[in-house]
Amino acid sequence: QVPLAESGEGLVQPGGSLRLSCTPSAMISTAYTMGWYRQVPGKEREFVARITTSGSIQYTDSVKGRFTISLDYTKSTVYLQMNRLKPEDTAVYYCNIDMGVRTGWGQGTQVTVSS
Fold first, then answer.
1. Among 41, 50, 61, 86, whose CB has the most other CB atoms within 10 angstroms?
2. Would you give the DSSP letter of residue 60?
3. Using CA atoms, how far apart are residues 109 and 33, in angstroms rounded to an integer?
4. Residue 51: which H helix or E strand, with range?
5. d(Cα 94, Cα 35) in Å, to the nearest integer?
6. Residue 7 near residue 110, CB atoms below 8 Å
C-alpha cells in the first residue's frame, strides 16, 4: 500500500469551485495512474476521474465539463479542479494510485456543496 496525502476539503455553495490535491508519501514508480473516487453514506465508492503518466484522462459522465484532473509529474501530485459544483457532488473524495503491483488510497476528504 502506498500512503497518499490529500488536501482541499471544504464547504462551498452550489455553483462554486474547489480544488483537491493528492501526493504520495512514499516512493513510487515512474509509470502510474492516479485518480479520484467519491462515496456517500450507504452507497458504493464511485469513480470520478483518472489520469495516467502517459497523459490519458477519463471522467465519469456526471462531471464532464465541470471537473478537470491534472498531474504535476515533477511533484507526483494529482489535482482535481471542481467547478460549477452541485449538491449531488457532496461526498467524501478519495485519491487513488495504481502502479500495477502496488496501489494506495488517500484518507478521504469531505466536499460539501450546500447553500
1. 50
2. -
3. 19
4. strand 46-52
5. 8
6. no
Which grid coordinates are listed for 59? 471522467
**Residue 8 backbone zone (phi > 0: left; psi -120 to 50: alpha; other: beta):** left
Confirm if 89 and 82 have CB atoms less than 8 A apart: yes
For the record, the C-alpha cell of 63 comes out as 462531471
CB 51 within 8 A of CB 97: no
Q: How many helices (H) and strands (E) does the chain have?
A: 0, 11
Q: What is the mean pLDDT of residues 84-111?
A: 95
**pLDDT tens, 61-77?**
999 999 999 999 898 99
Question: What percentage of residues in the chain have a pLDDT greater than 90?
Answer: 81
> Average pLDDT for residues 86-95, to the nearest whole number?
98
Quick check: 26 and 4 in contact, CB under 8 A? no
pLDDT value of position 2: 87
- Phi, psi (degrees; rounded to nearest 5) at 14: -55, 135
